[in-house]
Amino acid sequence: MDKRTIATGLPPRPHPSLPAGLDERSVFRTFFAAYPDALIVADAHGAIVLANPAAAQLLGYSVDELVALNVDALVPDGIRARHAAHRAAYAHSPKPRTTGTGMEMVAKRRDGAEVMVEISLSPLQSHGLPLVVAAIRGIGDYPRVKQALQRARYGEHLAQLGSLAVDSRDPQVLLDEVPAIAARALQVDLAAVFLLEPDRLHFRVASAVGALMSEALGNLVPNGPETPQGFVLAQGQPVIVDDYLVERRFAVPAAYTEAGLRSGLAVPLTDLGKVIGVLAVRSRQARHFGDDGLRFLQSLANLLATSLQRAQSEEALNHAQRLESVGQLTGGIAHDFNNLLTIIQGNLQVLEELPELARHVWGQHLVDAATRATKRGAELTSKLLAFSRRQVLQPTPVDAGLLLNSLADMLRRTLDQRIRIDVELAPACPPVLADAGQLESALLNIAINARDAMPDGGSLRFRVGACAELPRHIRNEPDAPGEPDQGFVAISITDTGAGMPEEVKERAFEPFFTTKEAGRGTGLGLSTVYGFIKQSKGAVAIDSTPGHGTTITLYIPQPGIADAPAINAVGASQVVPAGLQVLLVEDEPEVRAVVRIFLDTLGCDVTAAASAEQALLALRPDAGFDLVLTDIALGVGMRGTQFAALVHQQFPDMAVLLMSGFSSELLDADRDSPPSWELLRKPFSRDELACAIARVIGARRNAVGPG
User: Fold this and answer.
1) Which is the most buried residue in 73, 167, 438, 542, by most CB within 10 A?
2) Is the distance from CB of 488 to CB of 556 less than 8 angstroms?
3) What per-residue confidence (pLDDT) applies to 508?
């Protein structure tokens, strides 16, 4: 008998309840063929002897092909060995088994694909047949199962993006991948990431899959509550569109309906609570998006926003580290340059006073030109030190309103008359704690930059007001200052000039970076502002857009209760006592020679040493030195501050004057030295040296008392 003819163990016979002409065998055959679930009958060895059309359809075979197989062929390769063991155990003790109990509920189709199934087994031994009936039901189409599978796929896609976010440090890689992942997971026709431009007037299409021509990569899309993207920004929450044909909350672009789009889903990209963009997907099927799709897209958007924020933070950190590295480099350069300037400037001053040159007009002219050049060189190093935050500051409470009004009056006389200058002061604005001279210089630098950005005239406005705390984006910077108890004062300088593109704004504080033509700027203006403000424990921010001007805001701490009011130092006599015994310690021979000449011409009795160790040999109790003048950096060996401390310990009445071309050394000395010590920055003139000596000698005499 052919296997396919076996239907039951019943002989063909009429049944009293059946209509005339029908027997039980015919009914059971028809029932087997018409049953909606897949039915397979197999023998004890797993050979398939019967299969119905539903089984053939579920598994991708014809009925004849199934009958030629063993049931092992319908089991995925990875679990085939376990299935064989289960089948052998079942053949040893056959009994009805409920759906899927103890079995892997996955079947392998003819094309190799796998399908989730429920299986019920029923042995036919009790009916005299050594066979087993397997009822198989595909459950992939069950709504609950489909939902679970979809969620699992969403999880896989999110895990894929998360892995990419960990492996890649380039935010553009993630931007390119997110629309592709969204399109695959949600089975949509279009997906795109829109990032808000700095002017917040437009979105830029940062990445897209299947984008419209109007939303192609790099295009700008208007921002406004009447546009799809602007509506999401205005709402600040996800927006689902069931059907663009009946949407009335915003204006649907004609390109959407022309492309056959019917439904859409968009979620905002947020960074620190602020919307920075939109992730949107669209489908040609109406009502395509449900709650699961919404949650998936939100998760995708959150992961992308976090990655973008991380990339931005890393870039800010790298930028800060670059600035710090340049600051250290420029500080070192300034130190060496100041030594050279001391030599040049000192020799020029000695040369200028030679009797032979006094009668030589052309020679005097050359010396004057060289002297002016050394002063410009000193100003340049001062700017480098300002950027590197290694200048010596004297912060005092400063009335920013008075300073700005005075500066504005000067600017009105000196800047282009076509530039209108306004000052806005908030009522009862507190003072700032800053070096008044450096603050004025910083504001002047900004004003000059603003003038250059307005060649045809414009408006320059200064605004001053109290500020309880720094803006959030500044507080999150790697080198953000601490928040003082008294808060800050914000000084904003706004011009109506050309503005800065993003790439220029990012480098605006770098030293030597300038967009001006050759010969029209050193590129140190804003870098000195940056260094001064940071050293003053404040912060600086730039807000600029091409064509819409620039605003630079300085956040400067307010004075604390312990900060003394501004006190003008009482001018000490500039007369150096005749015959003053000076121990000079300087490791640079030419600098030592220049300083010795200055001291000689001031009437001092000088003993010079090239190192602290050499100077210690000269410090006999009977040496009678009145003053130790020492450089801080003395090459290999003891530093000048250490030497001065030893001198102070052994001879507490001896005056100490420290000098250095490296302002950070002066800063450290200023912090760690006794108040009676004096600090002198290189390069210095003979008159500046005389003033410093007079001050320190005067301070020593006041401390010791008359006699």
Assistant:
1) 438
2) yes
3) 74
